[in-house]
From TrEMBL:
Required cofactor(s): pyridoxal 5'-phosphate
Name this polypeptide is given: Aminodeoxychorismate lyase
Gene Ontology cellular component annotations, sorted alphabetically: cytosol
Organism of derivation: Alteromonas australica
Gene Ontology biological-process annotations: amino acid biosynthetic process; folic acid biosynthetic process
Length: 287
């Protein structure tokens, strides 16, 4: 496949970054993953706004304006289409603080950010029928990451370790709760529950990433007259929910049928999921 590195498009196998890059040494950078289907991106405006605010939060100058980012994305999709014939293409963008001559924690003066992008195949758009969708099983554990989870940092060791807990339990993801027993998000997704036909998702704060899929879903549900509330809920609320869903750019809205070995609802994908995914598909390219 074809990658983007510091202004050039080149084969991914030829893209090289110095080991002195602060992205490598410190995880000092910000990233984004943008889903595209048949060359149409989903949530580009939201992804660009989150990238901009993440870079600003860690004092890295945004190397490109939105038009330039859009052009890079379009070129990556076009150049990679022959390698990914399904047309379900995720674009990864990564901006690190750059390469320094020494390893010293303080921000160096006058280094240029390293900008990297590559393309990879994502799952096809979710089906509309609940009998055709892959149902997820998840683990549950206390969030042991840092206190700035709203920043889409490339330092993902905390997320990796939480995700691995799920893998070791033979499930697909790990839902996280804080020390007060409130659900926040999952290791690589946001979380929704449904109770009595009302959809709930935790409000945005420093404990979770402001997922673009989450925000498109909230808007889509409102447009489709699905009742939705941003409010905190507990582990008990999660386990006693009628339905549980995960959201992320690569999964869209994914139904969860088992948490920590316990069935959710009747253990099958629910009817509200079907309504939700229809509402999401109707709105996702407009968002
Ligand atoms: N939460 C975490 C920790 C994530 O890593 C991600 C994305 O990968 C999400 C939530 C979902 O965000 P988005 O919908 O923007 O992909």
């Amino acid at each position: 496949t074809i990658a983007f590195l510091n202004g050039d498009f080149l084969p991914l196998s030829e893209a090289k970054i110095s080991p002195m890059d602060r992205g490598f040494l410190f995880g000092d950078g910000i990233y984004e993953v943008i889903p595209t289907y048949q060359a149409k991106p989903v949530g580009m405006k939201g992804h660009m706004a989150r990238l901009k605010s993440g870079l600003s939060a860690i004092s890295i100058t945004n190397p490109y304006d939105e038009t330039q980012w859009r052009d890079i994305l379009a070129t990556l999709v076009e150049k990679n289409s022959p390698y990914i014939p399904s047309g379900n293409i995720g674009i990864y963008f990564h901006v690190s603080r750059g390469t320094d001559s020494k390893r010293f924690h303080a921000f160096p003066d006058n280094i240029a950010p390293t900008v990297f992008g590559f393309a990879f195949e994502i799952a096809p758009a979710q089906p509309l029928n609940k009998h055709d969708v892959k149902a997820f099983k998840v683990a549950l554990e206390e969030d042991k990451r840092w206190q700035r989870c709203h920043i889409k940092s490339t330092s993902l060791l905390g997320n990796v370790l939480h995700f691995q807990t799920g893998v070791e339990q033979g499930v697909n993801e790990t839902i996280l709760h804080n020390s007060a027993g409130e659900i926040t998000e999952a290791s690589s997704c946001n979380v929704f529950i449904v109770k009595n036909n009302v959809v709930y998702t935790p409000p945005l704060d420093n404990q979770l990433l402001p997922g673009i899929t989450r925000s498109i879903a909230l808007e889509a549900f409102t447009r489709a007259s699905i009742e939705v509330e941003e409010s905190r809920f507990s582990i008990d609320d999660l386990l006693n929910a009628d339905e549980v869903w995960l959201s992320s750019s690569s999964k869209e809205i994914a139904p969860v049928v088992e948490v920590n070995g316990m069935a959710i609802g009747d253990g099958n994908v629910g009817d509200m999921w079907q309504k939700a995914i229809k509402a999401y598909h109707d709105y996702k390219f407009i968002a």
